[in-house]
Amino acid sequence: VDQEIDETKVAITLPDHAYEVRVAQRSLRSIGQITREFSASGKKALVLTDSNVAAVLLEPVKQSLERVGFHVTSCAIAGGETSKSLEGLAPAYDAFLTAGIDRRTPLIALGGGIIGDMGGFVAATLLRGVPLIQVPTTLLAMVDSSVGGKTGVNHRVGKNLIGAFYHPSVVVADVDTLRSLPARELRAGLAECIKHDIIRDAAGFASLEENLSEVLQLNPRRLAELVAHNVAIKARVVMADPFEHGERAHLILGHTFGHAIETTTDYKYLHGEAVALGLVAAARLAQSLQLIDAATASRIERLVVAAGLPTQASDLDVDRIVASMAHDKKVRDSRLRFVLPAGLGSAIIRDDVPVELVRQTVDSLRG
Ligand SMILES: NC(=O)c1ccc[n+]([C@@H]2O[C@H](COP(=O)([O-])OP(=O)(O)OC[C@H]3O[C@@H](n4cnc5c(N)ncnc54)[C@H](O)[C@@H]3O)[C@@H](O)[C@H]2O)c1
Ligand SMILES: [Zn+2]
Q1: Ligand 1 binding site (Cβ under 6 Å of any ligand atom)
Q2: Mean pLDDT within 109-128
């Protein structure tokens, strides 16, 4: 029989707020007690989730909340980025504002990054703020979107343009929830983990190389280590720069390429897959600029491959991708701005990258 792993807590300490990310197994069934720590006298509890997650994980969460005396109102919206809009929020406000809530009523955001972003925004705006319990159920949401306090929705003009900073009371990452996650989504989350180690932790990169197969087999101990390690890195970066004035920009490693790839391929790639391609491009670009050696660049590529993520895509439209990056207002005199690896475990921002070199790098992804 599996031995249950111990809980790991990662503390997030910001100028105006402190909370914990609790990484464990089987914590969904204690979500009621955990929620009570942050809403001792609340009578109602709200759960925002999506229909895929609701099918597998809503019942245990509801039961656990009811066991400690909460009356639960849940709202399951359709999964997918098209729901992440002002219109998509309407059912949540309708359900929650008619449930007889007050400012002690906690909101549990149960789902991936979409639900985390939307639930955070709803929690920030319901009665100008109710306690938020983030329960991320994708690897991406556990290691990335649940830390940092960014919440919000998309607008047709662009992604994530409507939002607020709002921090949760606690983040409960139960690695068992990853068992029902499609494997492709798990791998997409690994792209952000690889990114974190490239910018901050060479030793973490080496342990990911070593433990990757156990992670892909959903070994709970390895998953918990991975989540806690990555939350700690993201927390460290966010705590050093809570309002994104400087080094938090390192977190966009691979994303300048990645966003351009996402938008020019009509979102055929998952975000993490596009980021994986972006990490490979950033490594190659850094090698061209002599920021890293060939051995380091190929180590990055090998880890991306081992994670089951793409390193080449024959259908990329180089002109459109370069135009899209240039449009991203990072161009100066035909030079582009990038976060790039500077050795393993560190990153730098370069705003003098010649467009021609960028073009060659994107072209190299076509195989
Ligand atoms: N706030 C931030 O700092 C931040 C950072 C990164 C990404 N994001 C946002 O996160 C979003 C992407 O998040 P995501 O990759 O988690 O996508 P997602 O929320 O769409 O989840 C991916 C898919 O997996 C399903 N799913 C989730 N958990 C499941 C589970 N345990 N079992 C079975 N199915 C499950 C979902 O229904 C969905 O179909 C984007 O909107 C992005 O903008 C925000
Ligand atoms: Zn990302």
Answers
A1: 50, 52-53, 56, 79, 81, 84, 111-115, 117, 137-138, 140-141, 144-145, 148, 150, 160, 177, 180-181, 185, 271
A2: 98
